[in-house]
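dude i think i finally got it to work??
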Amino acid sequence: MTEPAGLMMAMMQPPPTMEEEFQDWYDTEHFPERANCEGFETAQRLICLDGFPRYLALYDLTNRAVLDGPGYAAIARTRYSLWTKRIIPRMWGHYRAEADQIYPGQARLGANGVPTRLALWRFSGVPETSVQTVVDGVRLTFADTPGVQQIRVFEAKAAQAGDVIATIELAGPVPLPAPTAKAFGDTLRCLNLSNVYMPYWR
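look at this
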């Protein structure tokens, strides 16, 4: 069985007094370090159009084990820069997940065209026996939505175990369907984040 691709995802929002420094840090140090790290296959920053927190970064990984490798160890955990140590504790809504791609398994962001919008749904506290229900629910919800370029679903591990994250890549400002109990059953109560993003540039 092929090992699933991995994902590292981070979302956060700086207080207004740190906005400019935050962008300088992310654009010149934090993001380039990860974009150029061994095993990181894509890297994309996005800005929230509807929801909180405001900024999202998605990194496709060869597999999740990349985060235990020497390349990532050289820039993370005990090797965080002083600038990173200053920025991170001051962020609002900071959320970070390491995850396996459980649907379709090996897809990369933008594989079917660069999305102009990206919807992100997060389900927390999902029992292992109900993870497939979330996958099926996301696929059913967006089955008839025009402009969907790609659907991917990830199961978070490590500290965020129990979270299931769905990203829906869209071509344009597509009206989004609402999640329903018909599609998700009891797992609908686990949905605790539903944001819409567009690619970030500066």
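The chain has a mean pLDDT of 96.
im so relieved honestly
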